[in-house]
Fold these 2 entries.
Entry 1:
Amino acid sequence: MPSDLYGPNVIEVNGAAMLLTTTGGGVAVHLTAAVDEPGSGRGAVLDFNFDSDRNDRAGTLADYDRAALTEPRWSQTTLCGRVWAIMVGGDGGTIGRSGEVAFAPTCRRCLAILDRHFPRPIPDDRLTLVAQLAADAVVDQRGFAEIHDVPGDQLDELRRTVRALIRKRTGTPVRTHVINGVVYVECPAIHHQRRDEGMREAVEAVDAFLKGERAPRRDQDWVTSWSTWGVT
C-alpha cells in the first residue's frame, strides 16, 4: 500500500484488528471483527464509493487506499449484532461530506462484548476477604454495604463474588452497581427487614437536634475499604 494513503480505520484488540463502523442511523461508533476466511466478508466501504461520478463520498476518500478499504475481510454485523453501513473515518478524514472521524468505539454493547477478548484478570489475594466482609454487612446488619478503593480490574469479580455469597445465605435477589469507583451492594429483602432499626436511628438523631445536642455518632459498619485489607 502506498505510504501516503491510509487503510481501514481499525483498533487492535489482543492482536486482532477491529474495524470502527457506523450503522448510518445512529451516533454510536461500533466495532466489527474480521472474518475467519479471507475474502468471505465485506469491504470497509463499497467499491462504488470511490467513483466520483456516482457518489459524493469519492472526494473525501482521496487519502484512502481503495484496495485496502474494499477488501472483503469484515463481518457482516458488528460485535453487538447490528448490520453496519460503512467504516467511520479515521486518519484519512471523513467518509462522506457529512461523515465523522473517530478513533475509539462508543457503543456500550460492543464495549461489553469486547471484554471477552481479553484474558480474565487474576483475582487479588484480598478479594475473598473483602467480599465476605461486605456480605456479612448486608446479611447480618443493614441489607446494604459499600466497598471503597477497589481496583478497576477487580470490580467485576468482586461484584460476582459478593452476589453469590449473599444469594447462597439468603436465597434473595442482590443488586450491585458502581458509582465513582465505589461498589454499592443492596439486598432489598434484608433492607426491608431492618427498616425499623433505621427509623429508630433517624428518630434519635432528630430528637438530639431538637434538644440542641450532638446527634449520636454511628459507626459506618456498612463500609469496607479494599485498601484496609492489604495482604502481605
Entry 2:
Amino acid sequence: MVRLRINPTAWGLKALACAALVGFSMPSAAAIKDADLSLGFANSELRDDSSYSDQVTLRAELEGGGSLYVRFLATNVAGADGRAELRARVSPADNDTYKVKVRRGEASKWKTVGNRLYANLGRGRIEGRVGRLSVQMEDKAFRIQLEVVTDHAPVQPKGGRVKDDGDHYVTTVLVPRGRLTGRIEPAGGAPIEIKGVAYADLRQGNIQPDDLADRWVHLLDIGPKSTFAASALSRPDADGRFGHAWMMQATDHKLPLYSPSAKVAPSRIRKDKDNGYRIPQELTLSGGGHKASLKVAKLRERKDDLSGLGGLERFVVERFMKPWSYRHDATYTTSVQAASRTLNYVYQQLR
C-alpha cells in the first residue's frame, strides 16, 4: 500500500492530519486511568514512528450563546517530526472572538509526560486526567484559562478502533458531557468570565490517514439537557460501507444511550456533480438496543480540503486523494430523545 510523504507544513498539519487522526494505545476493558490518557509522544517507540499522531479536540456551547473550540495536534505524518500545535477560538456572547495559536517545530521543542494527558508548548498548555481537562494559552493581547470537569468516566468505543497489520487507531471520549468554566483576560481590560457545556475526545495512532479511511461521518449536538456524539468511518477497501461506528448520548450525570459499536444505514444520497462524491442526506445508526436517525436540513459548507495548498503540494496529494468536506445542519431523534433537535453533521470523502 502506498505511503504518502509530502510537505509537512502545507499538508501534514492541515488537510492530512485534520482529515482523520489515527490511534494506538488500547487499555483493557477495565476502568480507564490517568496514565491511559497519556499522549503517544511520551512513548519513545511511538515518538519515533513516522506515521504517529495525537489529537485532542474540545468543543463547548457557552451560556447565553457563543461557542468554544480547542485543538491540540502533534504529528510525525509527512515528515513533521513531532510538530505540535495548540489552537483555541473562543466566541463569548456579545463579545469579540478571541483566537490564539501556539506551534512548536519538533518533538524536542515541547514537553509531555506518561502519567496523564499533558502537553506544554510554552505559551500554551493542555492537561487531562480522568474527570478533568484544562487549557491555558497566552497571546500578546490576552490570556485564556479553561477548566472542564465531568461526572463521566472516559470511554473507548469498539467502533472507534481499527487494527491494521500491527498499526492501530483508537478514539477516547474524554468528556462525554462536562461543565466548562474559564476566563479571558484581555491586556488592559476587564476579565471575561465564561461558562458552558463541553465535549472532548482524543484520537491517536499510527495508521496513515489515506490508509485508514476514505469516508468519515462526524455528528455532534451539545444541547441544554444532553450531548449526542457519533462517528463512523469506511475503510478504503469497504466499498463505502461504514464498518466502524459508535454513538452516545449523555446527560450531566448519566449515559442513557451508549452504543460502543453501531451499524450505519445511509439513504437519500445526493451526488456532487463536480467530483462524483455521494453524500448521504439521511442516516440511521443502530446498536446496543439503541437507534438514532437524522435528516439533512441545510448544507452549511462545501469545502475542497486541498484549497489551501500550494500548486506543487496539491499536484502531489491529488495523485492519492481528493478530500472534500460537507458540513450540514441536520434534524435528529434518538431512542432516548423523541423530540427532534438540530446537530452538526460533517461528511468527508477522501477519494
